[in-house]
Amino acid sequence: MNKKNNRYMPLLLAISMVIGVIIGSFIANHFSGNRLSIVNSGSNRLSNLLHIIEDQYVDKVNIDSLVDKAIPQILAELDPHSVYISAKDVQAATDDLKGSFSGVGIEFTIRQDTIHVQNVIKNGPAERAGVLAGDKIVSVDGKPFVGKIVTDEEAKHRLKGPKGTRVTIGVKRYGQKALKYFTITRADIPVKSISATYMLDANTGYIRIKNFGETTYPEMLGALAQLTQKGFSNLVIDLRDNPGGLMQSAVQIANEFLPKNKLIVYTQGRKSPRQEYPSDGHGSYQQIPLVVLINEGSASASEIFAGAMQDNDRATIIGRRSFGKGLVQQQIAFPDGSMIRLTIARYYTPSGRCIQKPYTSGEDPSYEQDLLSRYQHGEFFSRDSIKHTGPAYHTGIGRVVYGGGGITPDIFVPEDTSGVTSYYKEAAMSGLILQFAFDYTDDNRQHLKEYSKMQELANYLARQNMVEKFATYADRRGLQRRNLMIKKSHRLLETYINSRIIYNMLDEQAWDEYVNIGDPAINAALGVFRRNEAFPKLKPQPARANHNGKVSHVLSPYIRRQESHNKSVTYYAYYRTLGQGPLAQGDKSREEELRG
């Protein structure tokens, strides 16, 4: 009898287990709405909440959409620079740092619900297909593409695409009635992070770095080689309005200018042990006199480079206090293609200064409006108005530098507001200057093509009385003529208008060369070289730059396009009105200049 019972025991146990599972499932299904997991951690509560909503909410809910909205709110409670990037926005967020994107190779602006080709990238697919600057794209892949459907996002969606795929565009060309059609094979389009390399004078080279990406270091080596062929013996590196990017690129470039075993930057966080980045002594430009230009739009990797040069007494820093973005983000991808940039550490300069300016956890309006507050406080006009909230530190030779956020320059250059009037503000912020410059370029493109060099085109435009032409144009579009204000703002208006036309017809380097003419920071740098003061010396008081009345390009495109400090910068940039960047935009009538 016992033997017989033993024979059926495994079967009875199996049946009991199945019954137990069924009963457990029944209880879970009927009571899960009222009883949550015993483990009452925050993550479990969030997970349970989403399950409850999906299971019991009165209406059908898109959980993915709900999560997309919730994650940014959670990250916003941490710090100003931890951000969530949805799957559809990941590519756009990483293109500039990668150094290339896949597309047709044009820069365009959207005007009157139509794509206008601003520039055609040299040796790109569009140029090889025959597309010209000034063409208007009116169809894509056989379907009309004009009207309200034409947005920047939709245009990028249709023109960009995987390498090797094709797109056919219909183009309306100036002086021709029939549409022209071009089939373009998409390819990798380089995104340059160095926008200008040229000689300021017989001895001084100039390099503008607009962001730090994967290709910035090799681009920098190429730029230095180009200047070497021209015999440069001094160097200006312009980081104004550079929002940063990849730390490694800034470290690599700093290494070119420092002797061996000089600390460039170090990072440290709660779960991130201190990690130092020293120079290796292999840099080829350790002895060249160097000046670095910064302003309130210089952030992150820009501040790493400027801080390394300042703390090691390697270069003279000129301009205004930098942005103060010193939090290290790590990119973490999700299976659906979205990702977060989570702050894991802080950047510190060689002297021990934390680059990050103060902030409070959660929504912090004062942080978002910091640049506006600086402007109103007078920091852009007087060095004495700079508030040093951190302790004093010392450079290698004992010069005093301050913590509390950002890099304070050795030589302060105030912003020039002479000539600013309400008329100029309205002209700049409304977008009318951008509209006029584009329309003038479009209407006169055939003649303007005769001038292939910046100075030739600038000389021609100087004879065309462009301010008067603009005033008439603007008056017809609702900006009433104010002759006394126009006279007072004449220099600003002429510089802004002509710089836009030069950019439209030539390229970004030509624009840089034009706006740098007479720039006070550039003049201060040249003065440093003349006085042989590029290598800092211990002085009781910092030098001050002479202010000679030339507006610098303080409303540049780059501070709106990258990194999570853009909210503060954009708010501040709209408040100020001295826009001269190639992608400057107004808050009433906005032109989108994009790449496709």
Q: Care to describe what's here?
A:
With 596 residues, this protein is of the alpha+beta class. Helices cover 38% and strands 18% of the residues. The protein has 21 helices and 22 strands. Strands 3, 4, 5, 6, 7, 8 and 22 form a 7-stranded antiparallel beta sheet that branches. β3 and β4 form a beta hairpin. α15 crosses α18. The N and C termini lie far apart (85 Å). The model is unreliable at 30-39 and 544-595 (pLDDT under 50).
| Percentage of β-strand residues | 15-25%
Globular, elongated, flat, extended or rod-shaped: what is the shape? globular
Number of helices in the DSSP assignment: 21
Enumerate the spans where pLDDT stays under 50 for 5 or more consecutive residues: 30-39, 544-595
Relevant terms:
single chain, 596 residues, alpha+beta, seven-stranded antiparallel β-sheet, six-stranded mixed β-sheet, 21 helices, disordered C terminus
Task: Write a brief structural summary.
This protein is α+β, with helices and mostly antiparallel strands. It contains 21 helices and 22 strands. The N and C termini lie far apart (85 Å).
